Amino acid sequence: MRLTKYERDVQREIESWQHGDSSLITQAMNWAMQPMDWVVKQIITPDLLDQADSAISGFLGLLNDASRWTFNKKDFLPRARSLDIDVSEVDDLRDQPLEDLDPLARSWFTENTLLAAIEGGGTGLGGAVFIAADIPLLFGINLRLIQQIGASYGFPLDDPSYAPVILSIFNVASSGSREGKNEALREISVAAAALAGDLNYRGRVSGTYRDQTKHLPREIAKNILGRKVAQAIPIAGAAIGAGINYWFTAETAETAYMLFRALYIERKERL
């Protein structure tokens, strides 16, 4: 199916994002965390590192179950209707004009980034004690955000088979790497082909869920681990926690926004 001018412009925007450097907010975070990295190495115990690593990997390893209960379609449709997008089912959104769907997707950004920052600041006050509690809360907020953005384009991701897509988004958000973006877009291409052909999406890599995703939880944990344990630094923990959670959620939002627009466009092209 032929693309509109708006959709072709979005394609070019996605290509620029794919081949570009990490975002300004990620570059700023990397710069700000340089002195913190030294402090973390001096005062953080191996036990705390193991706890944080287990919390991150453990949550990501349960995505195939967690994705069932974090998103409520009934709460979603009123938001779409408030923007004059009148549909009776979330799946119907994938056939609406992209220029109408982009504002709906972006409408979820601010509330989730602020919620994550507030949560990170609150748990940061507790230092090392609250880090293990903070990580599942942060990833839970971001999992729901991914599903909200996906649903904005008619892809609610309420089936655990979409775990490879969700993990790909987390990987890009935590690393900002071009390699991660390329891998994520390849996953999106497989999903688009399945959706266009009314087939069940089962992930780009054949095999079980663990076969498809076994390397990503460890990569994501590695990219975010040092930043999260920096919350254990006395006095600075609350500010660090708020900043890290805001950064990660903003990156998750932007990554999901680009990838689900790519999914919308590629599915349309294949019809």
List the helices and strands and how they pair.
Elements: H1 5-19, H2 24-43, H3 46-61, H4 63-66, H5 73-82, H6 98-106, H7 109-124, H8 128-152, H9 163-175, H10 178-196, H11 209-213, H12 216-229, H13 237-270
Helix pairs in contact: 1-13, 3-8, 3-12, 6-8, 6-13, 7-8, 7-13, 8-13, 9-10, 9-12, 9-13, 10-13
Protein traits:
0% strand, 13 helices, 271 residues, mainly alpha
Question: What does this entry show, briefly?
Answer:
With 271 residues, this protein is mostly helical. It has helices at 5-19, 24-43, 46-61, 63-66, 73-82, 98-106, 109-124, 128-152, 163-175, 178-196, 209-213, 216-229, 237-270.
Describe this structure in words.
By secondary structure, the chain is an all-alpha fold. The chain has one domain (5-270). It has helices at 5-19, 24-43, 46-61, 63-66, 73-82, 98-106, 109-124, 128-152, 163-175, 178-196, 209-213, 216-229, 237-270. It is globular.
Discrete helix count: 13
Number of domains: 1
Helix content: over 70%
Largest sheet: none
- Return residue spans where pLDDT drops below 50 for at least 5 consecutive residues: none
Structural class: mainly alpha
The general outline is globular
The share of residues in extended strands comes to under 5%
Cα distance spanning the termini: 6 Å
The H/E string reads HHHHHHHHHHHHH
> How much is the radius of gyration in Å?
19 Å
The total count of strands amounts to 0
Query: Kindly state the mean pLDDT as a whole number?
Result: 81
| Assembly state of the chains shown | single chain
